[in-house]
Amino acid sequence: MNAGELTTAPPGSTVREALALAVPGLSSAGVDTAQLDAELLLAHACGWTRTQLFAAAGDVMAPGVANRFAELLVRRNNREPLAYIVGRQEFWSLDFAVGPAVLIPRPETERLVEVALDILRSRARPRVADVGTGSGCIAIALAHERPDLTVWASEISADARVLARSNAARLGVDQRIQFVSGDLLVPLAGAAPFDLICSNPPYVPLADAPTLQPELRCEPTTALFGGADGLGVIRRLLAESPALLARDGLLLMEVGFGQATAVRELAKAAGFAGIEIIDDYAGVPRVLQARMS
């Protein structure tokens, strides 16, 4: 059976019945979180929260809602990311608008935000650069937590910058984030020096592309792939960031699984000291912390 056959609820179906029909179709398409995704998609089609959805489980769906739900399910059965379908993703307990122009914010990146806040705790009015800001999730989370902080956020994609600016305005921190256009650190030189440079760069090796989950293949390739070995952008950031850091400035950078040893050596070669690779909460070496020597 194809996705369309699996996701159409007959007229007069209740919310509960529509969910029961939808879950097997999502599961057969390879969606691991089929029940949760079906609930979130139906809530989105109704304009409700999940709590409202559960409260109305016995209600008959309006025809327009049923049709909208079927359309959303077909997209999810085709493995389009849930966040792109609903247009939202939570990060740092904040609601971010997302779309195909930006990488979907992930929970492991919150570890980088935690480390950054620890570093900045003892610094008054710190100056921070977020390189390749995408949706703006790192810059906005930091600005949200530290009212005295000013962030410069670089992004080469015009569509991503529009989305990041919109997120910053909606979350009330747009006056403290300067969004600049350009490749990585290039547009940030005029604002240096920075107390902290942080980045979640592309670090997936190109050779891994055929093995990625279908959802990942929907995300922007420039935000995912870091060259043949995944370290191309990381090398650039390590080589170029020392010139933009204050005397006691630090670089924070998310790295991929299995890259910790290589990144540590690259940081040493770039002249950094006090190099640490900090685990995320799954125990995976995730965040490079390096200080100017």
Explain this structure to me?
- With 293 residues, the chain is an alpha/beta fold.
- It folds into two domains: 3-78, Orthogonal Bundle (Helicase, Ruva Protein, domain 3); 90-292, Rossmann fold.
- The protein is 39% helix and 19% strand.
- The longest helix is centred in the first third of the chain and has 15 residues, at 63-77.
- It is elongated.
Strand order of the largest sheet: 5-4-3-6-7-9-8
The name of the CATH topology of the largest domain is Rossmann fold
Q: Which superfamily, in CATH terms, is the homologous superfamily of the largest domain?
A: Vaccinia Virus protein VP39
Which percent range describes the beta-strand content?
Answer: 15-25%
Notable characteristics:
alpha/beta, Helicase, Ruva Protein, domain 3, 293 residues, 12 helices, two-stranded antiparallel ribbon, 9 strands, 2 domains, seven-stranded mixed β-sheet
Write the layout of secondary structure elements.
Elements (H helix, E strand, L loop, with lengths): L2 H5 L7 H14 L5 H13 L3 H6 L7 H15 L4 H5 L1 E4 L2 E4 L12 H11 L6 E5 L5 H9 L4 E6 L2 H13 L6 E5 L12 E6 L21 H4 L7 H9 L4 E10 L5 H10 L2 E8 L5 E8 L1
Parallel strand pairs: 3-4, 3-6, 4-5, 6-7
Antiparallel strand pairs: 1-2, 7-9, 8-9
Helix pairs in contact: 2-3, 2-5, 3-5, 7-8
Give a summary of the structure in a few sentences:
The protein is of the alpha/beta class and 293 residues long. The chain has two domains: 76 residues, Orthogonal Bundle (Helicase, Ruva Protein, domain 3), CATH 1.10.8; 203 residues, Rossmann fold. The protein is built from twelve helices and nine strands.
